[in-house]
Design a protein that fits this description.
By secondary structure, the chain is mostly helical. Helices cover about 55% and strands about 5% of the residues. It is globular, with a radius of gyration of 26 Å.
Amino acid sequence: MSTSVSAAVNTITVAEALTKVTTDAEFLKFVSENQAFFVTFGSKNSHTLRHTLFGLYKKANLSKKAIFLVHFFHAVISDPGRVLAGISTLPKDMQEDEAIKDATAFIKKYLVKLVRDEKGGKFASVRLGNTMPGLDMFCAAMIGEAPKDESVLRREVTALVGRKTFAQLKVNDALLALNKTAQKDYWDNTVKIRNADERKKSTGKGFEVGFQEEYWATNAADDYLLVDKDADNNFVEVPVATVYTMDDILAWYGRVHGKEVVIKNGAVTEIKDAGKGKTKVTTTGGTSGKALKDMTKAEIEAEIVERELALAEAEADTNEGTLKTANVTAKKKAVDQAKRFLAVKK
């Protein structure tokens, strides 16, 4: 029996099909002038998700503090139901705080835990951290132990390096490798899959078990910056010339807890109070860590060169919109301070 298709079967050629398709100059002009719009057209990545999320914040008329609380609570635990249960255990006066009440109302109205439940204008809480990885890391660092010594510092930072959102930061390959190992171990060995048949039934399709390299690679392709607080208690991004190193992460974690971590040649040599709870937004290499009053004239001159380089990087980052004016001002003050010490140094 022949399996060939009869030539008599009706079909349509590409040439004939094209005669049934058209467009107009107006739409062609729109596409030409808005090409960037179609790069992520219909897709969901951290940028489009952030746009959606902040649309919900605007709709709910949330204050800045309430928005922070939504992210903070879900950095602790991603399940909105458990977040609400946790809020109910806060001291009564805190529960009556307007920002907490507003955040609670937002969570009840707009958040669900899983992506599959994102219906009717709901947003999956498991995606909150991905919309602003730097803020998620800051929130997670807040609830970590203050670095009283190097062992505590490295233990807490190691835990943060393994966090899902860490892969989205602008970190070096060594840190990415550590994150990948930690995430693979978590998904392959820690996460327990329960009620598999029920989940398959509810979604109408199968699901992926264990570490998914493709999902991790999507996160790792991002280049987000760390977040810190400036002297005026505003959230700002932490600039970096190329990529963050382990030294940068250690120093940043210390600043979150009001500590200055002094690092020399990869070793933590000192952990001290940063002073009055105000942190300096900088990366390692900007200063030597040695007090100006204890430096020789030559060391101060070298320090001025380093601080001027850090200032130049900060000004460049400001032009790209990644650092606020307050941080540039702080670096200018650091340069001026060193020059004043040099002027009186014998």
